Amino acid sequence: MKRDLTETHTGALGRRVVAEAMPSPVELRGQLPGNACTVASVAEGRRMLTEILDRNDPRWVVIVGPCSIHDPVAALDYAQRLRQLAEDVSDTLVLVMRAYFEKPRTTIGWKGLINDPHLDGSCRMGEGMYLARDTLLQLGGLGLPVATEALDLFSMAYLGDLVSWAAIGARTTESQPHREMSSGLPMPVGFKNGTDGNVEVAIHAMGAAARSHTYLGMDEDGRMAILRSSGNPFGHLILRGGGRPNYDAVSIRHAEQTMIRHQVPANIVVDCAHGNSNKQPQRQPLVMMDVVSQIEQGNRSIVGVMIESFLEAGSQAIQPDRDRMKYGCSVTDACIDWHTTEQLVRQAHRRLRPLLAQRFLHTAA
Ligand SMILES: O=C[C@H](O)[C@H](O)COP(=O)(O)O
Ligand SMILES: C=C(OP(=O)(O)O)C(=O)O
């Protein structure tokens, strides 16, 4: 993609930045427009998810995929396999692929494909945004609903029309600008509990994002604007652990009670990774099966789970020589491999399927 190299040195204003031109959302969408297939796939993804959150659809959602996408080819390879699996389990589970292009870091590190698409610190964000949108279009073309983290306050203006579900991460759930942005997003948004395990901040975020807000943002032409949102009624809580895991029945009950007290819908997604697995990917299946057992025992607040999974198990460091890197292996948090993922999802499907009939009756009552 052609880069506009107009650079403005703002040192005279006393700011420690150099500005580089970036296409507007309208310009990028003009270069990479959605087609009928992607538009339909995104809309259907959002519809299924909102119906699950409203309890009009008795299925469960499984948000599954790499911790981050660093190689779109491998991500699409993964997506092809996931699409087949999604079809096989669709009577009980709605599979949504994690397509995370932005990574929040505890301190520093690679911040994702949008920020640094060449993985070498060159940080060509215009190219990164182009690549992210292009990848989302291809994923949409497969008919797979896609999930992403809305980390940068402006990225969703470029990509949001191709996304069916968004997360606000543990490091930003308490941030007012992220809550304001979420209040204007057109898809369901999951708020993670804080990195220290604080669940109340995410529940406050749900309450805040459900309301309308007026805030500074960017319009479709890339100009600063005063934005007025209508409020997002499809916020929900993601329990990701922190300090200690929080997927056990006592923690879930506590989260439910806190949500009821704060008058937000008791909808919970359990993240099997991060603090709930102590970042040990081999623990993710144990967490997921525990959650399935809780559902079998009658839990009604858990609407789904999240899994960090890629083609290969584990993680790897970014190497200057890309040929030395393992194909389909995470460059951020360690993941479970495809084989384990498939077994896990099929096992959950086998166990949850018999409960659907029961749920149908409950939904109808
Ligand atoms: O999901 C990914 C990571 O947990 C998150 O980006 C933080 O990673 P870090 O602690 O390695 O920076
Ligand atoms: C960064 C992530 O999670 P968290 O915000 O829970 O650390 C993630 O899901 O990629």
Give the secondary structure arrangement, pairings included.
Elements: E1 7-9, E2 18-20, H1 25-31, H2 36-53, E3 60-65, H3 72-89, E4 93-98, H4 125-141, E5 146-149, H5 155-159, E6 165-168, H6 176-183, E7 189-192, H7 200-209, E8 214-218, E9 224-228, E10 235-239, H8 249-261, E11 268-271, H9 284-296, E12 302-308, H10 338-364
Parallel strand pairs: 3-4, 3-12, 4-5, 5-6, 6-7, 7-10, 10-11, 11-12
Antiparallel strand pairs: 1-2, 8-9
Residues 67, 103-106, 109, 274, 332-333 line the site of erythose-4-phosphate.
Verbal overview:
This is Phospho-2-dehydro-3-deoxyheptonate aldolase. The chain is α/β, with parallel strands linked by helices. It has a single domain (24-49, 60-352), classed as Aldolase class I (TIM Barrel). Helices cover 37% and strands 15% of the residues. It has ten helices and twelve strands. Strands 3-4-5-6-7-10-11-12 form an eight-stranded parallel beta barrel, surrounded by eight helices. Helix 3 (72-89) crosses helix 10 (338-364), helix 6 packs across helix 7 and helix 9 runs parallel beside helix 10 (338-364). The longest helix is centred in the last third of the chain and has 27 residues, at 338-364. Residues 1-5 have low confidence and may be disordered.
